[in-house]
Design a protein that fits this description.
The structure is a homodimer of 336-residue chains. Chain A is built from twelve helices and eleven strands. With 336 residues, chain A is of the alpha/beta class. Chain A binds a DNA duplex (30 and 30 nucleotides) through α1, α2 and α4.
Amino acid sequence: MATIRDVAKLADVGIGTVSRVISGKGSVSQKTRDKVNGAMAALKFIPNSSAQSLSSKRFNTIGLWGTKSSGEMSRATLTKIERELQPFDVSLITTDGERNSTNHPNASRLSIDNLVNKGCDGLIIWGSDMPDFDILQLEKEFPNIVLLNNKVDAMKDKSFTFDHYKAGYIAGEYLIKNGHKDIALITGWFDTSDANERHNGFIDALKDNNVFIHDNLIYRGDYTFKKGFEGAKYLLNQKPSFTALFCANDQSAMSAISALSSNGVNIPNDISVLGYDNMNISSYTTPPLTTINVPVQKMAISAARKLINLCYGAALEVDYNFEVELIERQSILNLN
Amino acid sequence: MATIRDVAKLADVGIGTVSRVISGKGSVSQKTRDKVNGAMAALKFIPNSSAQSLSSKRFNTIGLWGTKSSGEMSRATLTKIERELQPFDVSLITTDGERNSTNHPNASRLSIDNLVNKGCDGLIIWGSDMPDFDILQLEKEFPNIVLLNNKVDAMKDKSFTFDHYKAGYIAGEYLIKNGHKDIALITGWFDTSDANERHNGFIDALKDNNVFIHDNLIYRGDYTFKKGFEGAKYLLNQKPSFTALFCANDQSAMSAISALSSNGVNIPNDISVLGYDNMNISSYTTPPLTTINVPVQKMAISAARKLINLCYGAALEVDYNFEVELIERQSILNLN
DNA sequence: TTATATTATGGAACCGTTTCCAATTATAAA
DNA sequence: TTTATAATTGGAAACGGTTCCATAATATAA
């Protein structure tokens, strides 16, 4: 491997000059620049990234920390983020924060420290699995962080989130508008603010229309296919029957549809099902799923851009407002 | 940030000694070791990873290069890989090789070089999008590579693949056994060897039973939901009708089911559908999808382990044989 | 006790960059 | 032409580890 000194010698210039042409910073005459570029090409010179990081304290790497491997933080979303980073020659290191969360009380902080120590210029914290307090503490020590699908009031400009309350409300309203009054629920976990907001929005919409959900018709899920399936089967045996089922995410909704169908209920004629997320799979359930669109990829892109601005002094345009939208497909029957 | 010299000074030892206790290599008396550990704790010392890499030429990072963001290289699979790496304190950098594949003839090689130059000890090459020749060439320059879901004959011990021919054959046989003779196909791309092998296996199974597929009933797909949907609609209008549909992957199968159902055909009573992949979603289609299990995660784990052995001289156990298995669910009708 | 092998230890040299400052050269202004 | 100013250049020092070698301390054998 050729080093900067080899290049300098071949081009008959100083090492500082070579460094300047590599980085593009500082002034170098065109003539010299050509000489150096020629030498670099001849030697197939590639800068050693460890040496660069050591001396510049810049890593050209950002970390993505998240816990839920489910839902829409799909490979596709990662790819979107990578594509934002690529023009800046920055790579992405991902960590599944969940992996040691059982062992240690503040395991999340540990896994983050690992990431940071490894050498990240910045961090995307995905999801709301970390208490606000811890996030604020982290930000004090390591300000280059950005929140994806979570918000902390004191960090508005670093929060990329979505109005889950409004989305929940719209979901509720939509069922009402379609004449549904007997409604069942498969929830997710309630350990995150967005889950609570979505739920509250939904319930408030019903309340505002004097519709109340019977306790028996609320099934505590966890966003998985499995719980969606089990939940639907459970609800089917409950006392007050229902005409519509709202699921906390599309995965639950899909498997609920599967469970209902296999029990002979027709969607949407017997029971309507409403999802939440708009995974790309959701157009292809049977029947296609009506759902709330959560623009994760857009959010991820903006989060990445903000982080680039933060870390590398860029000035990329960043979006903070993500439209709440209900995607009408064919899983809801209009009772009116 | 405390450095090794700060630690040495506080513990009143030499820097070499500190380095020895950090790495655990070389001999240090227990007494000295305790002193040094105490000093490290007091100073909250964290080794600078760039400096470590620079001087040791070890990066504690491996790269994952792949092109298809679809299919089963899901976040879950990435997580599996990460978990194999974690005990060795190695992180994973992913690259979507696809992103610049349009611009440049050997863009794949370029994006790999990027990864390597960034500082990887080894590389997982996922999928068969790179010609064997290029892979062999790459291996010459950079031997720490491992192939996931692809094989190169000269690199048997580095290839983690699956008997797609056999799997295709079993799929074909299964349809035959269930009495199907009028069979339609939604294929994937044929640009990779596994796609071809799967297809050939399937066709051979039919041939061996004197069943032949009518040209009209072969639809060229691309593994996406979209093409599966369109393909199913297309096939429905074709002349020889069919009783079974084999899709090159579960995504196509799912959306084919959706298309067929929405056209009033009942699965499996009117048409049987067979998938390929066994995504975790596939238990929850309507009806649940009968499919071939492709143990990507197991393969990924073994690939990761082999790479660790290669890069870090470990001796982890590695599996090369991945069972071909048909998962019977409810999307196939037995005509006998 | 002495000779010898073994274990511990300190620290210079090195890894390959960036950065800064002093020195040189080119350019513009007077 | 001279002077002031700006652009260009070289290279030492620094970044924070690892490694190796010479040396010191200790253990073992004779």
